[in-house]
Amino acid sequence: MAVPLSSRSERVGARMRLVLATVVCALVLGARPGQARELKLWPLFDYTSDATTGAQSLKILGPLIEYERDAQYRRIAVRPFFSIRQARTGHDDEVRVLYPLMTSQWGPEEQTTRALGGLITYRTSTTSDGRTLTGQHLRALPFYFYDWDGERGTRLSLVPLYADVENLAGYERVQMILFPGYLRLERPRYDRRYWFYPFYSRVGGPGGSGYDVWPLYGRTAIDDTYQGGFVLWPFYVWDAYQRGGETERRVVSFPFYSTVDGPHRTSTAYGTILYVHTLDRAAEVESFGFPWPLWEYQRRTTGAPLSVRLLPFYEMHQNDTRSYRRTDGLLVLFHDERETDLATGTTAHVRALFPAVVDEGDATWDRGGAPALLDAMLPHETAVREMYAPLWRVYAWDGPVDAPRISLAWGAVTREHGTTTYPWRWDAADDSAGGSGDQSIDAQ
Questions:
Q1: Cβ atoms 132, 126 nearer than 8 A
Q2: How far apart, in whole angstroms, are the C-alpha atoms of residue 198 and residue 302?
C-alpha cells in the first residue's frame, strides 16, 4: 500500500527534530566543568558556557526559548508565555505567566501569587524551614476573602452578603452584612458604622464621635486631632487637623472656592481645579496649577524650579542639587532620566523613545535595544524587559561600556570580547587545548 508523500515528509521532519533535540541536549548536558563551549546553529540553537564562572546559556529558535544558569539563579523563558527564575541556594524564586496575567514569588517565609493585575491574590506564610504552614490568605476582589492562621482559625467573607476582613483599603478591619445594609470601618482610635451606606452613619470607638445624614448634614470628631463636617455635601465641607499644638483648617465651597490655612501650609483653589496655588513653608515649596493636575509648575520658595507638568505633552522633575532629573514627553513615548552620585560624579541614565530605542546604564555598564515597544513605554519594568523585549529587539547590547556584547537579528550575529560570531559556530574544545572550530572574525 502506498504511503502519501505528506505523511512521509511529516515523519522525516519529526525524526530530524528529534535528532536535533537529542544532539543539543547531549552537548549541553555533557559539558564538563573544565570545558568552555560555544555551539551555534542559528536560529535552531545557540549554546555557550563559561568554565570560569560555571555559567551556561542555551537559546532555541532565537529568543523564543531560553535557558540560563549562573552562580545565583537558573532561568527559563518560553516567550511570550512564561518565565521561571529559581535560586540555586535558598528561596528566591519567581514565575511569570503571560505577564501581568499571573506572577508568583517564593521567599524564605512568604509565598505570593497574583493574577489578573492583582484582582486575585493568594499568599501563604511558613516557618523559616518551609515545612510548616502558618497562614493562608486569598483575595478575589471585590467578592471573596479567605484567611486562615494557626491562632484564629478560618475566616471566610463573601461580599456583599457577609465580610469580616482585616487590613483592607487602609482600614484595620472591614465588616459588612448584606451591603449596603450594614458596613463597619475600623481604625485604631475610632470606627464608623453605616446603615444603608452611604446615607446614615455613626462614629464611635475610644476616640471618635459624630454622625452623618448624607448628603444633608454630618459632623465627626476624633480625639483632639480632627474635627470636620458638611452641609449639603459636596457644596460646603470643612475640617480641622491638629498636630503638635498647631491647627490646619480646610474649607470647600464646591464648585467655586476652597482653601487650606495652617501655620506651615496655605492653599487656595478657584473653580475646584481651574487654578490652584499652594505654599508649603515647611518644605519651602510653592506650586501653581491651571488646571490642576494637568498643568502644574512647582518651585522652591527661593525660585529654583522643581517640576513642570504640561500633560499630555511634557513633564519634568528634578531635585534641588539637580543630581536627579527626569523628563517625559507625550505621556510615555519619550523618557529621559538621569541620576548623579555627587560623591563620585558618576551618572546613571535611562533613555527611551517609542518605538525606536531604549538605553539604560551608568559609567561602567550599559544595555539597550531597538526597536523598543513596551520596554520604551515602561523602561523600569523588569518583567517587560526580560519577557517581551527580546521578541522585538532586532539590535541589542549589554555589558561594559567600553566593550558590550552586541547582538544583531536576534543573535544571528554577535560580537563580544573583540570576536564577531556568525550564524554558525562550533567551538567545543577544552580551554587548555587552545583549539576551536568556528566561524568568527577576531579583532586584530
A1: yes
A2: 46
Looking at residue 438, its pLDDT comes to 47
pLDDT in tens, 235-262: 999 999 998 889 999 999 999 999 999 9
Contact 361, 348 (CB under 8 A): yes
436 in Cβ contact with 429 (< 8 Å): yes
- Residue holding cell 535557558? 67
Domain extent listing, the chain: 25-62+414-444, 234-311, 327-410
Q: What is the pLDDT of residues 36-54, one digit of tens each?
A: 588 999 999 999 998 888 8
Distance CA 262, CA 251 (A): 12
pLDDT tens, residue by residue, 339-398: 999 888 899 999 999 999 999 999 999 999 999 999 999 999 999 999 999 999 999 999
Kindly report the number of other CB atoms within 10 A of residue 26's CB atom.
Answer: 10
Q: How many CB atoms lie within 10 A of CB 299?
A: 16
Task: Say if residues 270 and 255 touch (Cβ distance below 8 Å).
Answer: no
Residues 256, 262, 266, 269, Cα dihedral to 10°:
-10
Distances (CA, A) of 5 to 12, 13, 16, 371, 431: 10, 12, 16, 42, 47
- How far are the Cα atoms of 65, 79, 248, 302, 358 from residue 279, in angstroms, in the given order? 55, 50, 13, 12, 38
Q: Which residue has the cell 523613545?
A: 353
Burial of 74 (0-12, 13-18, 19+ CB in 10 A): middle
**Whole-number Å distance between alpha carbons of 117 and 408:** 34
